[in-house]
Each structure stands twice: as C-alpha cells, then as structure tokens.
Design brief:
47% helix, 5 strands, Transcription Regulator spoIIAA, globular, 109 residues
C-alpha cells in the first residue's frame, strides 16, 4: 500500500482495490498502534468495501480517536459511498472530496 508519512503528524494512505484492501488496512492499523498520527485515507482506487473492510476501518478509527488524532476519508467513489450511507457510517467518519483539502483541514486544526 502506498502509505507514506506525509508529515511527522500525518499518514496519507492511497488505498487499493480489493482484495489487497484488507491487508493494507491491517498494515495501517499496525502503523497507527506503533506511531499514532492523523490519517487521510484516499479511496479513489477502491471499487467496493465489505463488512471486513468496514470492521477494520472502525478499529482504525477507534485507535485514531484514542490517540487524539483525526481520520479523514477522501475521494470516496459512489459505490463505496452508498455502503457508508446504508450502514450509517457516513455519520461517524469524516469525509473530504480530495486528499489536499483533508490534509489542509488536519494542519489547520
């Protein structure tokens, strides 16, 4: 997964399409456990998510909140967005249209 430290305080993760998505989210969770940072998740390449992906996203969110950090999902395609809407997760995650504004939002807060 192209997860890279964007700064000393932020990870920028360009998430892949399935099936590698779950492995990459797991890797990002491990990074967050050892070196907590704000996280921007770029969903632009993701074609669909399932319950395992959502579960891992919720765990990642929990770790991020526990370390007083932010997690922002961005560039979410319509098919993935509909899953967030149907499950009600659109109300608990923060979203941005593109990675740039998400990174700026974190830096401004």
């Amino acid at each position: 997964m192209p997860t890279k430290p964007w700064s000393d305080a932020i990870y920028l993760a360009e998430l892949p399409a399935r099936p590698a998505l779950l492995d990459d989210l797991s890797t990002l969770r491990q990074l967050q456990e050892s070196d907590p940072r704000h996280i921007v998740l770029d969903f632009s390449q993701v074609d669909a998510v399932n319950s395992s992906h959502l579960s891992m996203l919720l765990r990642l969110r929990q770790l991020t909140i526990a370390s007083s950090r932010q997690l922002i999902c961005c560039a979410v395609p319509d098919g993935v967005w509909s899953t967030f809407l149907v499950t009600g997760l659109d109300k608990i995650f923060h979203f941005s249209e593109e990675p740039g504004p998400a990174l700026a939002q974190i830096q401004m807060s």
